[in-house]
Amino acid sequence: MSDAPELLEDALVLFMPSGRRGRFPLGTPVLDAARQLGVYVESVCGGRGICGRCQVSVAEGHFAKHKIVSRADNLSPVGEAELRYAEKRFLPADRRLSCSATVQGDLVIDVPAESQTNRQLVRKRAETRAIERNPVTRLYYLEVEEPDMENPLGDADRLLRALETQWALVAPRIEFHVLPQVQAALRKGEWKVTVAVYEGDHVPLVVAIWPGFRDRLYGVAIDVGSTTIACHLSDMLSGRTIASAGTSNPQIRFGEDLMSRVSYLMMNPDGLTALTHAVRGAIESVIDKVVTDAEGTREDILEAVLVGNPVMHHLMLGIDPRELGGAPFALAASGAISMAARDLPLGINHGGRIYILPCIAGHVGADAAAATLAEGPHRSDEMTLLVDIGTNAEIVLGNRERIVAASSPTGPAFEGAEITWGQRAAPGAIERVRIDPETLVAKVKVIGNDHWSDEPEFEERLEEVGVTGICGSGIIEAIAEMYLAGIISEDGVIDGRLAERSDRIVPERRTFTFVLWRGRHEIRITQGDVRAIQLAKAALYAGIKLLMNRLDVERVDRIKLAGAFGNYIDPRYAMILGLIPDCDVEKVASVGNAAGTGARMALMNRGYRSEIEDLVKRIEKLETALEPKFQEHFVAAMAFPNKVDPFPASGRR
């Protein structure tokens, strides 16, 4: 019997933070061990030690819970590929390239966030969102056999064979526009190239090629709103959102609201061309902005996801939306659309792909679908109300059992339009209001000034940031505070009798006006302004009530307010006015640009595209204009907060 020590043949490897573990033969590359366990570690170069994206580190020590003693020297010594990489780029002292380092003993391996290809953090204004990364377009680094006399196979065919043998892609093809570039790229790269492969149509398709090694691949998620256009640039290899920008929708010059724009194109022979050209130009400009901020080019962008309301959806595609101007509000196309970038000229790489989420109904668009995907009422047991408040409010209500959707024509009042001193949210706009119920004197906060108007610091910044008007959140708070102070009645009438005790109440023709601010400009809330908000909030609430009736529910469990307006409105004031149903205030939240987040989800993960396409098919659509009870709910909702429904959570009856 031999007394020689037992030679180990394998070792235990634990990957963190996933917690996955397994035994592997000594000499197994760490990257291979990770893949066998389903631990996703980024690698663009296919384990050749070129890209450096597969970095990991060893957690040293005795891990009693896992029964592992992990040491750094249980990895193979630093190899030639790692030394070469460290010379050209930066490799931290505690990091190793998992494609080069091999298992030599028990190990606990930490996979840093930038090396993980799933669960990447994508940020939005209201929250941090983890998105599992499974993109439709990927980069592959190839070493292609050189041609010779005995093997006359064409360069493109040998490239495809390399994709099959080196990356196990099944029956890949090359898009026609790439073919003329293949030979030049192969020779310039000395038979080493990086290709972008689109894998969205079941057949892997080479859509772009570069000589040598390349590890830059961008995608954009774009929310095309009727007022603003927001663009987010993502690194498709890491999942990070690296730049965001927004711009005004230049179509505003053709009409403040969507129906005004439809009317414009109906009355002007070249209206469709003008509207489409305007919105596409704005999208191009905002893409330019984000790639410039990222020090890249538009050629780096090979994926774009767009969302928008039905009219914007049609106009950016160059489709006449006039059928949406009247019943039955027929969409030209409602399903998801996938196309080559060269078919919709937005200036991104011609080999890129554009995906547009499906529309839910004639007035509930791809933006509402994206917001639903992001906030997930269909994944919850709670009865959840999702409202995106704009010139046309889009409303989704339901849970995992059943979900319904509708729109309500709220008009532009919530965005400051149709209000005497209304303006868009910009420096100088009043955004917060408090009214003393005894003196009826108001104090305000404006965008760009962090102080209330009764604080000394407010006056110090008054020349720099004046008081120029009132934006959407400000008008909601102003009217809610007027109601709480007794300045306006339940029916929305400004009480002229209060003029006897306050110079803030002033007569104006046959009605009265409340002076909100006295300064360089006297900013007033008129009886007409109150009526505009009553009409808008009644339309919104009536739409919500119809959905509640359809699902036969008396209360909702949770409310999510989306969009720019929803992000700044105070939930309590929204309930005081009866803008939204009574609900536990703690369960009412602003969710920011949920449509933009949903677009990013569809950009980063093909699975979310399938999810929203399937969900839209089972969402029940309700057309508020055709519902018999709409008028009944609308009339009741004209009162503050409502003639019929109680609002105990708001503190009012």
Automatic annotation (TrEMBL):
Entry-linked InterPro entries: 2Fe-2S_ferredoxin-like_sf, 2Fe-2S_ferredoxin-type, Beta-grasp_dom_sf, Corrinoid_activation_enz, Raco-like_middle, Raco-like_middle_sf, RACo_C, RACo_linker
Source organism per UniProt: Lutibaculum baratangense AMV1
GO MF terms, alphabetically ordered: iron-sulfur cluster binding
Source organism superkingdom: Bacteria
Protein name as catalogued: Iron-sulfur cluster-binding protein
Domain 2Fe-2S ferredoxin-type: 10-115
